[in-house]
Specification:
Blueprint (H helix, E strand, L loop, with lengths): L35 E7 L15 E6 L7 E6 L3 E6 L4 E5 L21 E2 L8 E6 L3 E6 L4 E6 L13 E7 L8 E6 L3 E6 L4 E6 L17 H5 L10 H15 L5 E7 L8 E6 L3 E6 L4 E5 L16 E2 L5 E7 L3 E9 L7 E8 L16 E2 L8 E6 L3 E6 L4 E5 L14 E6 L8 E6 L3 E7 L1
Antiparallel strand pairs: 1-2, 1-28, 3-4, 4-5, 5-6, 7-8, 8-9, 9-10, 11-12, 12-13, 13-14, 15-16, 16-17, 17-18, 19-20, 20-21, 21-22, 23-24, 24-25, 25-26, 27-28
Length: about 450
């Protein structure tokens, strides 16, 4: 374990990529938002890392070219990326099959990896962005929510049977609310308002939107894959990809909530955070109670298979931030309020662990601490498809899970069973991390 806590030496992981930012220091928690530059690493097959073709995957954090000099926030869609400039402009790059880049459906494919400003938001001062596989969203400084892209699953939230928005369109159902965060799954979405109200829309099967969905029993991994399939076998990734494809096809007849509606289970509580995984949801109340609902094939709800509606998750610590992905879930929690260093934090992980994306051994369907980071003060955590990324108060980045396509930023394709420091970032301060399916974005202090 000691070796994993020390900086790694990798001959091919050049620090020259970040030399221009060397010397930035200090903590990243608290204070006013800061601006910086954007770096990316991981799978570049859709251009989401921002390197033009024929550039390959990025195995270490690599600067994203041609962005404004000061960026205030980033968001990683499944296969595309978004950035907000300090002036409130939105920039995009990556996959555009559904118009999620905000530059029209007919833009030349060979330009998708180029960073370009999203059209149609010129009169909106944007403060945050979010994205799914097929839809992008921006939150204005006035709390307005804008969406664009194409989704037959109702993710736009623009009204019945509206499946396409070629240009950013305001979600009028939320016009009287100050939206502070929006999170997207594959077919559903949730929006959190400044006063703690929670709205949901899109596909609602299996309780991912609570009572608006169908409270049905989700199949276990053994039932779906067959009892003879070893979930740690080399064929597991291919089998799971087939499962996701089958799920998408089966969603043609799923019930759709076409406009944002209050989540009933949260209507009498103040919500502090929310995260939508592929087809499950995590919700935190201000008192630290965590609800989970939706698919539970891999224990990502933090309980045994059964009813998939929104229910409380038993936890030993008080969570304050969550991140949900395809089959695993992560939560930042307070582990102690004593000591000279103030409140201590930790990461709870549970769910799918085929590539060690939980960062720990032990029972997978029970939220359990990632012990390797117990000495770090953590400020955010983000779950990718089969990898995980964490940011500390010192501005350091730790990654673990699948190393395929360089998605760990460690210079190789090796899987890591426990968190490893991304040492090519030594001497710089990272302000934000965002993990997508197979790539990652970093906002690095200027």
């Amino acid at each position: 374990m000691l070796s994993l806590l020390l900086p790694r030496t990798r001959a091919f992981a050049s620090r020259r990529l970040l030399s221009s930012l060397a010397g930035a220091g200090g903590g990243s928690g608290g204070g006013a938002p800061r601006a910086g530059s954007v770096y990316a690493f991981g799978d570049n097959s859709h251009g989401a890392v921002g390197q033009p073709p024929p550039a390959s995957d990025a195995y270490v954090p690599t600067p994203v070219p041609s962005l404004p000099p000061s960026v205030s926030a980033v968001a990683a869609g499944h296969y595309h990326s978004l950035a907000v400039s300090a002036d409130g402009e939105v920039w995009s790059w990556g996959r555009n099959d559904e118009g999620q880049l905000g530059r029209g459906l007919h833009s030349p494919r060979n330009t998708w990896s180029n960073t370009e400003q999203v059209r149609g938001l010129e009169n909106v001062q944007v403060r945050a962005v979010s994205a799914s596989g097929v839809v992008s969203a921006a939150i204005g400084s006035d709390g307005s929510l804008w969406v664009w892209g194409r989704s037959k699953r109702g993710q736009l939230g623009l009204g019945k049977d509206i499946v396409e928005a070629a240009v950013p369109s305001r979600v009028e159902a939320l016009a009287s609310y100050d939206v502070s965060k929006v999170s997207f799954g594959w077919g559903h979405a949730m929006a959190l308002t400044k006063d703690g109200k929670l709205f949901g829309w899109g596909y609602s099967e299996n309780g991912r939107l609570g009572e608006m969905g169908q409270s049905t029993r989700a199949p276990s991994a053994e039932e779906y894959m067959g009892k003879t399939v070893d979930k740690y076998s080399s064929s597991m990734m291919e089998a799971v990809e087939k499962m996701v494809e089958d799920k998408i096809r089966s969603e043609d007849n799923m019930p759709i909530i076409w406009e944002p509606s209050l989540i009933h289970e949260a209507s009498h509580h103040e919500v502090s955070d929310v995260s939508c995984g592929l087809d499950h949801s995590l919700i935190i109340f201000s008192d630290g109670v965590l609800l989970s609902g939706g698919d539970n094939t891999y224990g990502q709800l933090g309980r045994k298979p059964g009813l998939s509606k929104l229910l409380p998750v038993h936890m030993s610590y008080k969570p304050f931030s969550v991140s949900a992905s395809v089959g695993h879930s992560l939560a930042l929690c307070h582990t102690s309020t004593e000591g000279t260093s103030g409140v201590e934090t930790g990461i709870l992980s549970w769910g799918w662990n085929c590539s060690s994306q939980l960062g720990r051994p032990g029972q997978e369907d029970v939220p359990t601490l990632v012990n390797c980071l117990s000495e770090e003060k953590l400020v955010s955590v983000s779950a990718g498809r089969v990898h995980s990324v964490a940011l500390t108060s010192k501005g350091e980045v730790w990654t673990w899970g699948s190393g395929r396509n360089g998605r760990l930023g460690l210079g190789s394709s090796i899987d890591e069973a426990e968190p490893c420091l991304v040492d090519t970032l030594e001497g710089v301060q990272v302000l934000q991390v965002a993990a997508a399916m197979d790539h990652n974005l970093l906002l690095v202090a200027e």
